[in-house]
Amino acid sequence: MSEVLLPQHPPAHRWISAARAGDASVTQAVADPLFTGFGKTWWLALLITLPFVLWLFVAIAWLFYQGIGIWGINSTIVWGVAIANYVWWIGIGNAGTLISAMLLLTRQRWRASINRFAEAMTLFAVAIAGLMPIVHLGRPLYAYWLAPYPNTMALWPQWRSALVWDFWAIVSYLLFSILFWYVSLIPDLATMRDRTPRRAGQLLYGAFALGWRGSSREWSRLQTLHTTMAALGVPLVCSVHSIVGLDFAASLMPGWQESIFPPYFVVGAMYSGFAMVVVLAAAIRWGLSLQAIITRRHFEVMARILLMASIVMFYSYATEWFMGWYGGEHADREVVRFEFTGTYAPLYWALLACNCLIPQLLWWPVARRSLFILIPVAIAINIGMWLERILIVWNTLSHGYMPSLWRSFHFTFWDWSFLIAPVGLFAFLFLIFIRLIPSVSMFDMRELAHQEAAA
Amino acid sequence: MTAKLVAEFLDGEALKAALERVRTAGHAALEAFAPYPIAGLAEQLGQGRSAIRGVMLAGGLGAAAFAFALQWYSAVIDYPINSGGRPLNSWQVFLLVPFEVGVLAAALAGAITFFWSCRLPRLHDAMFEIPSFERATQDRYFLLAASDGDPNELRTVLRDAGAVAVTELRTP
Q1: How far is the C-alpha of A278 from the C-alpha of A382, rounded, in Å?
Q2: Which of A9, A439, B13, B165 holds its CA 20 to 30 A away from the CA of A131?
Q3: What is the topology classification, in CATH, of domain A23-451?
Q4: pLDDT of residue A4
Q5: What average pLDDT is seen over chain B?
Q6: How far apart, in Å, are the Cα atoms of A220 and each of A226, A350, B38?
């Protein structure tokens, strides 16, 4: 009675390429791999990412023991890889909730296939992002001083400090994302509870499913809560990355003190986040054989969003250059000149190539539909976005108001460690997520299948 | 005495049609169970709107007001410190933290109200005793109906509406 989901060419429906996708077959396609296991490939992938996790722990331990002098930062370039990582990871993190909430509010039905793992991506990325300011603190054991609490020193946090805004933005956003993700996970956990053959699974999934029955009352309340949270989530995401932008814009440095920073950071976050979702969607689609649910059309619409965001990014860069010149401030003009011709100029040209030039390939429908082109473009965008963040830090700090302070940043082994190892940790956490939790929202897919008349 | 019957259906349309038939025959349709949110089902069952949004608004504004008051008290009254000549009550930047905290508090208040109004978490429910009810979260649709008179009459109505199984619900 239940048929396996087989992708068809041409796709049978707009967002589902199988001819029929009944409730049973959607459930089966998403849930059953979790009971049978993923085989050797999954274990191999986990084994590859594990050394990176250990590497990160070693790097953090050494940093805590030795201090932040192990990085290439110096008394002029006081920010480095940790800050760029922070902005990059929270940018990726912002996209999951933004995508899920924005597509829900605009009634984009295709979100059903990607919202669950995009939100999981958010959780892991924001958790890694939250780590970065703490390791950068210098005295991380005092990180809790950011919180207001009654203390014998009779001190309070400095509410005018961007670091304090960051603290509240990250904490609020991380907890909000967990909640947003969890409430929409409850019905699927109940499915897992009712389907798993093992007692341990029944107990664990059952405990987290909270006794969900799928009653009409539960569904309508859940939908009210979820859409209201989505409506709050969109401004929250924008505010979080705006606050990250204010870390720079609220300073007095040339190249940073720009009112365009908050919106420009928000678009950048959506850009890198969507690029990451494309990569993860391709991996999940291949790894879990979900070609019928995550179709080529999904990639095509995401590619269109990437193209649009790349144009907005280019416009933002151009605005920065124009305002640097138009403002008439010598130091601002010098920073723009330094970007194009200074120490880090090759990286700056690489950033423009990755973020503005290469994505123009997506004007061609062939490129949008071909994963062999789309995935390298998405990876290039993520590299470009990291370069953008590190160059915002380096160019301004290397070329500030005082020429006698001009210096360069030189990578150390530990800079590389903090750049590469978190990517491994992210992959490690994501692998565990797809092994334990349905990576596509089953009830959203059932609803989509009924709307598409595929059920 | 009142008898409560649970009917199992193969699809949502049959469930909605059966609901109407149960009503027309003079019985009460109490609740419906489905593996995905069926549009219009709650309205058909006459389930009113929940207070979730109102509680979220109140919780969010309350927490935001508290966060602003905390900043104002600490920066103006308890620990006034001249930071670069900025005013003690720098209210413009004091709005950032209340916004973040307010959204989080609204979400928390909404989730708690949701759990409360659906009586979650629950360890057990009489519905879980119904045979094959585990498929309510997968691919089957269930209707809970109550009859005031003869339960067999309701049973016939449900059968005629296309139920593949009808079971009596035993409540303690």
Answers
A1: 11
A2: A439
A3: Formate dehydrogenase/DMSO reductase fold (1.20.1630)
A4: 64
A5: 93
A6: 10, 50, 9
Identity of residue A322 = F
A434 to chain B, closest Cα gap in Å: 20
Chain centroid to Cα B159, Å, comes to: 29
Residues B64-80 pLDDT 10s: 999 999 999 999 999 99
Partner-chain contact B97 A159, CB within 8 Å: yes
pLDDT at B1: 57
Nearest CA in chain A to B121: A210
Cα dist from A3 to A110, A427, A447, whole Å: 22, 32, 17
| Positions in chain A short of pLDDT 70 | 1-4
**CA distance, residue A356 to nearest chain B CA (Å):** 32
CB B9 within 8 A of CB B133: no
Ordered DSSP codes for A302-334: HHHHHHHHHHHHHHHHHHHHHHHHHT--HHHHH
B48: confidence class by pLDDT, cuts 50, 70, 90: confident
Residue A344 backbone dihedrals phi, psi, to 5 degrees: -100, 20
Q: Are A168 and B96 an interchain contact pair (Cβ–Cβ within 8 Å)? A: yes
Which residue carries 């929202």 as its tokens?
A441
Q: Which residue from B36, B81, B127 is facing A446, i.e. has the nearest CB?
A: B36
User: What local confidence, expressed as pLDDT, does residue A336 receive?
Assistant: 96
Query: What is the per-residue pLDDT for A1?
Result: 33
Is the pLDDT at B172 greater than 90? The verdict is no
Beta strands at B141-147 and B3-9: parallel, antiparallel or unpaired: antiparallel
Please tell me which residue of chain A has the smallest CA distance to B118.
Answer: A218
CB contact under 8 A, A23 and B35: yes
Q: Which residue ranges make up each domain of chain A?
A: 23-451
Domains and CATH numbers, chain B: 3-35+139-168 (3.30.70.260), 52-117 (no CATH)
The pLDDT value recorded for residue A447 is: 93
Residues B36, A156: C-beta atoms closer than 8 Å: no
Residues in chain A with CB shorter than 8 Å from the CB of B30 are none
| Contact between residue A45 and residue A446 where contact means Cβ atoms under 8 Å apart | no
Report pLDDT digits (tens) over A34-67: 998 888 999 999 999 999 999 999 999 999 999 9
Q: Is A148 on the interface with B (CB under 8 A)?
A: yes
Element (H, E) at A417: helix A413-436
Provide the chain B residues 46-75 that lie in CB contact (below 8 A) with chain A: 47, 49-50, 52-53, 56, 60, 70-71, 74-75
Kindly state the average pLDDT of the residues B107-134.
Answer: 94
CB-count exposure of residue B42 (10 Å: 0-12, 13-18, 19+): buried
- Chain B closest-CA separation from residue A420 CA (Å): 31
DSSP label at residue A56: H
